[in-house]
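Newbie here. two chains, one complex. Structure please?
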Amino acid sequence: MAKYPTPMLDELESGPWPSFVSDIKQEAANRKANPKNLDYQIPVDCLEDLLGQVELSYKEKETHWKHGGIVGVFGYGGGVIGRYSDQPEMFPGVAAFHTMRVAQPSGKYYDTKFLRTLCDIWDLRGSGLTNMHGSTGDIVLLGTQTPQLEEIFWQLTHEMKNDLGGSGSNLRTPAACLGMSRCEFACYNTQDMCYQLTMDYQDELHRPAFPYKFKFKFDGCPNGCVCAMARSDFAVIGTWKDDIKIDQEKVKAYVAGEIKPNAGAHAGRDWGPFNIEKEVIARCPSQCMKWDGSKLSIKTADCVRCMHCINTMPQALHIGDERGACILVGAKAPVVDGAQMGSVLIPFISCEEPYDDIKEVIEKIWDWWMEEGKNRERVGETMKRLSFQKLLEATETPAMPCQVKNPRTNPFIFFKESEVPGGWTHDLKAYRQRHQR
Amino acid sequence: MADVTDQQKAVIVDFLKGKSAAKSKFYFNDFVALFPDMKPREVKKILTALVNDQVLEFWSSGSTTMYGLKGAGKQSHAEGED
């Protein structure tokens, strides 16, 4: 029988969706049964207390977690988030219930040994409750107590050769799509870049000195499987400069119905015969494609790399050969001023090891933001407050038309007096000779 | 940058002690203002050295991080972490 009645939480189990309440109840029952006969290092009934506290919060419509904490592992200023109940006598199992963030393997490639070891550590020293994965992409271990932190850290680093992730005003755990390991669209080696930058910026990951959080994400192509453009302060998105490669014979095979569009991804129902005009040409956002019945042509100068045609006919179309990445800055979720997508800073940059070109841009942004950013201000907010032009100056990037998303409505870029012939003054007499009043 | 000096550490500790009646936790930027001739990354090295000396400690809400003197404020005692 449950330790506390939880009628409001129980209702959350009734819908068609997976329920975190069911998951917590399942693990609570498992801990009680203790089939592995573990010497649990935190209270066995912590999850029942968790359910009790969440039920109380639902009832009273206010949280019973205190705000933050001082706990961590020695020398690290991130990776552990102190969580304390403000009703410790009522729910002693969650009096301290800290969260740990653990770096996920690049591209989220796991082997069973890794997962088993992680679960073994967390069953013994934590609540057994995990969040795979947090919105940053890291492994989130929910619920442990202070004496366990160093023990868990030792096991993570020594037995698993892994590390804590980022939290607080740190560089957050970088995330990459699986890139070249499986995907033919990858324009650069996302996993390698993610790993190298993680190793190079250990100090920024573990010792906080930024005004607020800072996230890197690496997408191999504009399909954006880790949503870098929407979810990272610094997004590196693979792209190419030259033409999309076209195999005209394969295009004809798609048109003739010999090859399934979208690699058969929409085979769940009958959508009728493939229609290249409707499904590819008309859906091109910049209308840069033409099909004359026997030949497909693409005007590269107008292509915005939306990936739709390549995704629809992957055997006929392929990314170009001159590959690199586009850098976008400033995406964030809605806290101040609403959600913001990244803005193009550098339309094309080479992605060759050791990624010095990329690191140079990152460090210039950091230097600027650390000096100019207000407390708890994301770089996208600093950019918006001080203008995109200031970011261009800080990163020594020339202004380019491709940085303007909507001319006249978001004039990020202004001319300086020194850039305008004659400055802000002009010869009024000469002007009036040309223009009547 | 040269090694962190005792004098630099003392500037931070004195600042925190001077403010201890009003506040116990401070943002990183508050310390940068104490060293107008230094870059933020150099100031960070002083703070890191003080954390390693266990003079300072981090406080984190999960989304943001602050620095304070170890054991200062109500939280350490209330949560049994001192």
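Moderator note: The longest helix of chain B spans residues 6-19. Residues 6-78 of chain B form a domain with the Arc Repressor Mutant, subunit A fold (CATH 1.10.10.10). Thread marked as resolved.
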